[in-house]
Amino acid sequence: MKVMIRKDAAGSLSAYVPKKDLEEPIVAMEKAQMWGGQVTLANGWRLELPDLAADTRLPVTVEARRLEDA
């Protein structure tokens, strides 16, 4: 699914899913950087993000995969 990742003025990361008209803060990251790993949104969704360069400029729209809850 298409997901736009952006950072607000306070430095908080959020994810916007246009198809669901959903915007949620990113509350956890699997590893130190989010690219190529998993992030957790405030609503409990877990997304697997593509492997991009650490210095990728935000906002950026990527193809992410929603992971099923365990």
TrEMBL record:
GO BP field: nitrogen fixation
Short name of any one Pfam family annotated for the protein: NifT
Top-level taxon of origin: Bacteria
InterPro entries given in the database record: NifT (IPR009727), NifT/FixU_barrel-like_dom_sf (IPR024044)
Name of the molecule in the record: Nitrogen fixation protein FixU
